[in-house]
Amino acid sequence: MTDWSSLQAPSLDDFDAMARVAFDALPRAFRQLCGDVIIRVEDFPDDETLKEMECETPFDLLGLFRGIGLAQGEAMMQTGQFPNMVWLYRRPILDYWAEHEETLGHLVTHVLVHEIGHHFGLSDEDMDAIEASVS
Fold it and tell me: Is 90 inside any structural domain?
């Protein structure tokens, strides 16, 4: 049995490390859809994002993908185009984790796959298969 009394919630840096490990474990073809995606970890989405996504609370959004993948755009970035980015929101993910029967690593992988996958129009079945390939 784990002694939880001395453990702390993972920091932003811990989440960043988990996200990089999770992303690197995804199938190469899936990772290539994003080009050189940048993964950012924040405690919560900013107010503009919350408004844009019509969130009722800051805990409503676990992650977000912004950008244009190689499958949707040109291989070269256009002037003024931001790089592909995935945001993971630490506090909403921790809140979700506390209420469900999943490991934190699995949940981070799930959010990454779904944020990237929805952006590229993958079905839930496709994303489930991608997640299963890293389990």
Answer: yes
Would you state the structure tokens that stand for residue 43, as one six-digit string? 């405690």
CB burial string 78-107: b at 16+ within 10 A, e below: eeeeeebebbbbbebbbebbeeeeeebeeb
Which stretches in the chain have pLDDT values below 70? 69-81, 135
Question: Would you say residue 5 lies in a domain?
Answer: no
Domain that holds residue 16: 10-70+83-134
84 Rama sector, left if φ>0, alpha if ψ -120 to 50, beta otherwise: beta
> Domain of 58: which CATH number?
3.30.2010.20
- What is the domain count for the chain? 1
User: What Å distances lie between residue 8 and 86, 105, 108, 111, 113, CA to CA?
Assistant: 25, 16, 18, 22, 26
**54 domain residue, yes or no:** yes
The predicted model scores a pTM of: 0.86
Residue closest to 23 by CA, chosen among 10, 11, 36: 36
3 within a domain of the structure (yes/no):
no
What does the pLDDT look like over 59-69, one tens digit per residue?
999 999 988 76
